[in-house]
Each structure stands twice: as C-alpha cells, then as structure tokens.
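Hey L., structure's done. Input below.
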Amino acid sequence: MTALGRGLISLALLGLSTAAFAQDAKPQDAKPAAAQAAAPAAAPAPGAAPAAAPGTPPATPPAAAAGAAQAPAGKADGGWSQEVAPANGTTGIALDEKQTELVKTVSGYFAKLNGLQGAFVQTGADNKKLKGKFFVKRPGKFRFDYALPSKQIIISDGEYLAIQDLDLNNEDRVALDQTPFRLLLRKDVDLLRDARIMEVQQAEDLIVLAIQDKSPDTPGRIKIFLATKPALELKEWVTSDAQGLDTRVQVSDVELTDKIDEKMFKIQQLGNRLSTPQ
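Output:
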C-alpha cells in the first residue's frame, strides 16, 4: 500500500478530509502552537453499513442496523423512535423529551468513561477492512494500533494527534480539536451543549445517535451505536468526512479499565524503535 493510501485510511477513521488535514497537519519536529490547540472539533456522520468481515460477529444486530439505515422519519416499526434531520441540514433536529433523555444518557456514558480498550475492525468506503487494537483514556487520550501488514499507529496525547507509519518512518500531526473525538472524550462531555443532534433512535437493545459539531469550521458527522443490554456499551461508530466518504469502525472485546499505562499515549519520536502492544 502506498503512503497516500495509508494516510487516507487513517484520516477516514478520524473523520478528517484530506483538505482539512493538509491545512492543519504538523511535521514531526514542529512545536505545537497554543492557537491551534484552541481550535474547535470536527464531528462526522452516518453511512451505510458494509458487510462484516468473514468470521467476525456483527457489532450491531443486523435487524437493528437495517432499521438505523432505512427506517423513515417519525415512529418506525419494531419499537424504533427515530427522527432524521433533512439532507445537508446544519441546525439539527428538535428533540422531544424522550430524545433529550437519550442524548443525556449517551453523554453520561462518555462522561463517566475513564479507560477503555478492545479490538476494532475498520471498514472503509472502498469496503476494505483493517483490524487492530485500541486504547482510550479520558480526557482526550487514545491509541489505535493497526495489525500487520499496516504498520500504522494513531496516538492522541490529549492535545495533539499523530498518525505514524512505522514502515515509511513518516508522521503527521493535527490538533485533537480538529477531530470528532473532541465531543466524546473531552473532560466535560455535554452533547446537548456542544453538538448538533442530527438523528436519535432507540430500540430495545440499541441506541443510535448521530451528531455534528456546532462549529461551522468542522464539517462532518459521527454516528454512534451503543448496546443497552446487559449494560450500556459502545459497539461501533460511522464517520463521514466533508467529502461524504463513510468509514465504519466496529469494536469488540471491550473492557472498561483504569489500568492503561500513560506511556501508551506518549507520542514517540520516529527513528527510535517504537513498541506496539501485543
């Protein structure tokens, strides 16, 4: 795979367009600027769910996923409560009392989240799949280690995010606030305050929420799927960048933990031998 192809894969997971990243990317040895750290975040969006990888259990029940993609606005069959914003809408939807409570529930899940780790399968707009492990530590820190042959690592230290290609010894950086993860991993998560709510759905065992950052400078959306049984748990998300390209990330073997080493989120200088978790 070419360097460009690898970079596009990483940008897709983050919900970033190539144009936005080119403008905000920082070279490996550049020092962070305080002004960039204050920039608002991006928030991506929904897309059609590609087929799951062979042998990989679907993170979202097929019936629920179909309902999420196809159910019409208003009350749908099967217990779904859905309202969808108009195409290309930028103001979000008007929430009723039940939908407001659902958004608060999702905000509360991420606000209480300290540490999270597990496995992921990423399916791009071209239907190609990549696998790996992920680690999250709030506020703002996360790491995606792609399995071979990718040799890529995405690391956020809470302020900046680095995309590192160990094979090509190449790195790009961007302020964390330029990614959709800002809304979900900030210190004080409040989606009603910070996000435009574009879609809210609920089934017996699933909550689906599509959000977009309120900042006009951060186009794109993210659609989050959370299982509700036996307990609320992140199952997958779909990001859509400003160009309308969708990427689905399904997670499994999810474990809540406070024992993730802080060193996991240190952005190491390339040229040294970088370690990846086993």
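Helices lie at 3-14, 18-24, 34-37, 62-70, 97-111, 181-185, 191-194. The longest strand covers residues 246-256.

-- N.
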